[in-house]
Amino acid sequence: MIKKLAIEYAQIAFGVTIMTLGFYFFLLPENLVIGGVMGIAVIFKAQINPSIIVFILNTFLLFLGLIVLGKDFFMKTIFGSLASPVILFILETIGANDAWIMNQLTESKLLIAAVSGSILVGVGLGIVFRFGGTTGGMDVLQSIIHKKLHIPYQIIFYFTDGLVVLLSLVFFRDIELFIYAVASVFLISIIVDNVSIKGRAGQTIFVVTKKPDLIKQAIYDTIDRGCTLIDSEGGFSGHKGKMVICTMRNREVNKMRSVIERIDPESFTFMTDTKEAVGRGFSKE
Question: Which H/E stretch holds residue 5?
Answer without folding.
Answer: helix 2-22
